Amino acid sequence: MSTRQAQQPASHPVPGASGERQRPSVREDEPPVSVDKPLLRLGATLGIVGVVLQVVMDRLHPHRVDPNNSAAVFREYAESHDWTWVHIGQFAGTLFIILALIALARSLSRQAGVAGALGIVGTVTGVLVAAVFAVQMAVDGVALKAAIDVWAGASTADQASAFQVAESVRWTEKGLGGFFQMLEGATLLALGLSIALGRRYPKWLGWVGVVAGLATIAGGTVTAHSGFSAAAGLFLTPATVLLAVFLVGAFVVMWRRSATR
Known about the structure:
mainly alpha; about 75% helix
């Protein structure tokens, strides 16, 4: 009886035999959507509420005269009885929008490379936008109204000096407005580039944010030099339209991502 050496079959590793679990391959620049679900949903909700609140407050804010004509503006503002409440509403609306953009930036910062770094930049500039706008609303909604009321009730002999005080407060508001716009533009630029260079959101939405950011920075620079002038409006009017498209588009996509299984 001949003996043959038994051929041993090639050994193959058995999953789990060594005690290790196989990990599903996950792209480093695309973590699970479930990580950001609550934040994205909260951000989208706050963003939409903020946009609606801003539209309502804009309708209530008096703006029938040239905003760079201080005498006409002061007479118009003196007749407003809801001035401070309107500006509190404007602040709340902008704060909600900024919180939504920070939620967006948090999601974008999870990306790898430059796209993720730009998301972090957008977070920092977004916080600065909220801080500067809070000061602007305090100056415009409280300090300016008080100075205008003093001017409106001053005697003929005191009106000139009271007007100069109100004009100084008005220019403080204009300066804050210019820096608010430049910071807002920087935030849109950073988030827009992060979206355009990343893979999480539609690239067209990112380029809309980039153009809106550049136009807002240009408008804020002109505002810092010339106040609320027609020259600043040449940049800020189209920037506002693009901003609306970017915000609504971003909030819709954020809500859809939060609902993804």
